[in-house]
Amino acid sequence: GGRPRYEVVRELGAEEGRWFYREDRKTWKPFIGYDSLRIELAFRALGPEPREGEAAVEPVCVRSGLYEVDVANAECYPVYWNQTEKIPVMRGQWFIDGTWQPLEEEESNLIEQEHLNRFRGQQLQESFDMEVSKPVDGKEAIHSLKLSRNHVDWHSVDEVYLYSDATTSKIARTVTQKLGFSKASSSGTRLHRGYVEEATLEDKPPQTSHIVFVVHGIGQKMDQGRIIKNTAMMRDTARKIEEKYFSNLATHVEFLPVEWRSKLTLDGDTVDSITPDKVRGLRDMLNSSAMDIMYYTSPLYRDELVKGLQQELNRLYTLFCSRNPEFEEKGGKVSIVSHSLGCVITYDIMTGWNPVRLYQQLLQKEDEELEDSWMSYEEQRLLEELYITKQRLRDIEERLQGLKASTVSKAPVLKFKVENFFCMGSPLAVFLALRGIRPGNSGSQDHILPRTICNRLLNIFHPTDPVAYRLEPLILKHYSNISPVQIHWYNTANPLPYEHMKPSFLNPAKEPTSVTDGESASTVPSPTTSPVMVRRHYGESITNIGKASILGAASIGKGLGGMLFSRFGRSTTATSQTPESGKDGAEGDDKKATTVGTPPFSHSSSGFLEPTLELEHRIDFELREGLVESRYWSAVTSHTAYWSSLDIALFLLTFMYKHDQDDTDKSNLDAI
C-alpha cells in the first residue's frame, strides 16, 4: 500500500524511516510503528555525538514490553531473562525494491547525505502509489555515487538504482541475491527512500490482560537457553492463534520464561567427580537431566530447588507489575504452564507441601498405635512423661519462632493468585500417588489442589509421552476407565466446547445389547442409556483406528463401526445442557446409535452412574496423534513436542480468554 509523499525533497520525517532488529542472524525484521517511532525520537534526542557528562538516553521499551533498545549502542536486550547474544538494531532509510529490506546503515547514510546535497528542495515527479520498476537501460544517470563494492545512479529524483561493481565475482552475485536484490546485478536494483508504510503511534501492541509463567522441567542445566527458545516458540504460536481466533479482543496474553535451574549450586561438582569416564557423554547427559529428579527427592537439596523457582516466579511478577502498574488495577490474571518436573515443583510451591509434614504424620500415627497397645505401668508412666516433654518442646519452639521467624523456613508463598495451572507432560500424578493420595468420593479438584489456591487445574499430555500420567483417577477411581478429553485440532470448524464434551469409556462392553430409538429417547441421559455419541461429531479423526489397540476401545477386527460406537455420552454436569440442546442432541444421535454396552464399573441400583461420581471439571486433556506417526518414535519426541503445537496454543488461550469472550459476546455464555 502507498503512503502520501512530500512533494519536495527534504530530510526524512521520524515517521518515514523504520527501525529493524535481527535475531539468530536471520533477516532484518521491522519494529511495529509505535516502537519504531519512539526509537527514532530517542535517536534524534541523542544527537550525532553525545557529550561527556550528558545524561544517557533512557532505553526504549519495545516488542510488547519484553525488550529494551539501547539506542547509543544500537542493541536490543530482553527485560525478563538473561541472554548472552545481543540483538542488533538498525535504522533503515533506504530500502530494496520488493523485499523492503533496509540497506546497511553505513551505505544508507552515505546515499541519504548525497541525495539531500544534490536534490534538496526539488520537486518529486511522481506519487509513491504509481511507482513501477521500469527498465532504465539507455537512460543516462543524472548523478552517481561510488561505494566500496557498489555504485548508485540517480536517473531522476525518484529513480535510484544500486549496481554491483563485482559482476564477475560469483560470491558477490550470491551475496547480492541473498540480500534480496530482485534483478541481476547488471541491470541494477531499484531503491526506495523511506519505508513502505509510515510509522504511527496507533500501530501499538494490545494491553496485556493475562501473563503466563512458563516453567521448565529437567535438562535445563544441559541447555540453559532452551526454556527461552521454547517459550518464544509458544509465544509465536499463540500470536498466530490470537490473530486468527481472538482478534476481536483488545487485550492479549503474554508468555514469560521462568529459568530457575542455572542459579542453583546444589552439590557443586561432587556428582561430576564421582562419574566414571567410560561413555562420558551419555553419563553427562543423564547428570544434566535425570539427576534433577534425584536432587528433588533428596531432603538436602529439595528446598533449594523449591526456593529457586519460587523466588524467580515472585521476581518476574514484581518486575512485570513495576513496569505495568495498571495490570493489577485492571484485574490482570496469572496462569502457569509447567513442563515435566516443573509441574511437581510448582504444585509443591502452591500447596506448601513439605516432606517434613509427611514425617510428622507418620510419627503421630506411631504414637496413636502405641497408645492403643497393652503396656505395663512403668511404660505408661514413661509415655506420659514423654508426651508432656514433647508438648513443652513444641511450646518452646513456637515461642522461639515468634522471636526469630527468620530461623525457621516458612512454606513458600507466591505473590499472586494462580488462575490456571497447565501441566504438560507431567509426572505429578505419580508423585502424589507415592505421597499417599488415594481416590476419594467427591468429584472436586479440591481433593488434590484446592480452588482457593488455583482456580483451574488442567493436565495436558501426548498419548505416547512416557513421562506423562493422568490425574483424574486420583480424584475418582473409575475415571481410569474414562478416556481423557481429546484436544481439538486448531483448524477444527465449530468445535464442541470442552465443558459440553461427554465422558466416554475406554472399554466397551463385551456383549452389547440393542436399543431402539424410542427406548433411548425416553430414558434419562446417562452413560448406560444415553445414545452413543459418534466421536467425529466433535472433530474425532480416523487416526483412532491406530489408537484402538492402545486404548482398548475396540479391536481392529470389529471394524470402524465398533470403534466409533464405543464411546458413551453424558453431559458434564446434570444441568449443563439446556432442554433444547439436550433434546436436539438426543434426536440427532439416536439415528446413528445402534448399540450400547454396560460400563465396566459400579452403578447404583437404578443402573445409572451416580451423579456425585462425576468430576466438576475435566482435568486430563490428550493431544491427538498424527495420521502418519510411529508410536515408538513418538515416545522419544513427544515429551518435548508441546512448545510449537498450534493445538495446545489454542487450548491454552481458550481457557485464558474464557471470561473476556463471555463479556464480549453475551450469547456465548455457555461456551467453552
Folded structure, characterized:
With 672 residues, the protein is α/β, with parallel strands linked by helices. Helix content is 33%, strand content 14%. The strands form 4 sheets. A 7-stranded parallel beta sheet has the order 13-12-14-15-16-20-17, sandwiched between helices. Helix 4 crosses helix 19 and helix 8 crosses helix 10 (341-351). It is elongated and about 120 Å long.
Protein traits:
Rossmann fold; DDHD_dom; 6-stranded antiparallel beta sheet; alpha/beta; metal ion binding; 7-stranded parallel beta sheet; phospholipase activity
**Main sheet properties:** 7 strands, parallel
| Spatial gap, N to C terminus | 39 Å
3D shape:
elongated
Quantity of strands, as a count = 20
CATH architecture of the domain at 207-355 and 418-497 and 619-664: 3-Layer(aba) Sandwich
Instruction: Indicate the radius of gyration in whole angstroms.
Output: 33 Å
Ranges with pLDDT <50 over ≥5 residues? 127-133, 509-611, 666-672
Helix content: 25-40%
Secondary structure topology:
Layout: E1 18-21, E2 29-30, H1 33-46, E3 60-62, E4 67-70, E5 75-78, E6 87-92, E7 94-96, H2 105-119, E8 143-146, E9 150-154, E10 160-164, H3 170-178, E11 189-193, E12 207-215, H4 226-245, E13 251-258, H5 270-273, H6 280-288, H7 291-297, H8 302-323, H9 326-329, E14 333-339, H10 341-351, H11 355-372, H12 377-403, E15 418-424, H13 428-434, E16 454-461, E17 485-486, E18 513-514, H14 517-522, H15 544-551, H16 559-564, H17 579-590, E19 595-596, E20 620-622, H18 631-637, H19 646-656, H20 658-664
Parallel strand pairs: 12-13, 12-14, 14-15, 15-16, 16-20, 17-20
Antiparallel strand pairs: 1-2, 1-6, 3-4, 4-5, 5-6, 7-11, 8-9, 9-10, 10-11, 18-19
Helix pairs in contact: 4-19, 8-10
Protein name: DDHD1 Phospholipase
Organism: Anseranas semipalmata (Magpie goose)
Family: Belongs to the PA-PLA1 family.
